[in-house]
Amino acid sequence: MIENQKESLSDETSSECVEIPYDVTLENVLRRCGDLGRYQLIHYIFLNFIAAASGINAFYYVFGVAEPLFRCRLPSNMWADDDRFESINSTHQLLIDTCQSPTSRCQLVNGSICTEFIYDRSVFGRTFTEDGQYICHNAIKRTWLSTVYQIGP
Which residue in 20, 21, 38, 40 sits closest to 30, CA to CA? Predict the structure, then answer.
């Protein structure tokens, strides 16, 4: 009885199978669907646009919210045009070393908190962190900004 069921089952499955009249190869699929035309080209461009936009979005975050090297700006009565991160000469370097607190980049030696900073633009250029002054006591704002950026609108 079991053998009869097996034979009837094999007969049913063989009658359900459909033979494919030709080989399924990439060439045959392309021949049936058509070569690269206007429709395929438009889809190809838009699919690549999604990947490119994602890459641009990721790289903007790296450079936009980066924290460049910085130091306190020297008071104008000590050095009038202190607008370069690198020292101009040995006198300038000595003033930077004597005014800058050795324990914090956000304070001067006398304990006062810096309000103006000089940024190193050799690596990143001008960044969003520099424009918004997201350093020292405002560094938490940069953290919140990155959190909102990752969540999205």
Answer: 40
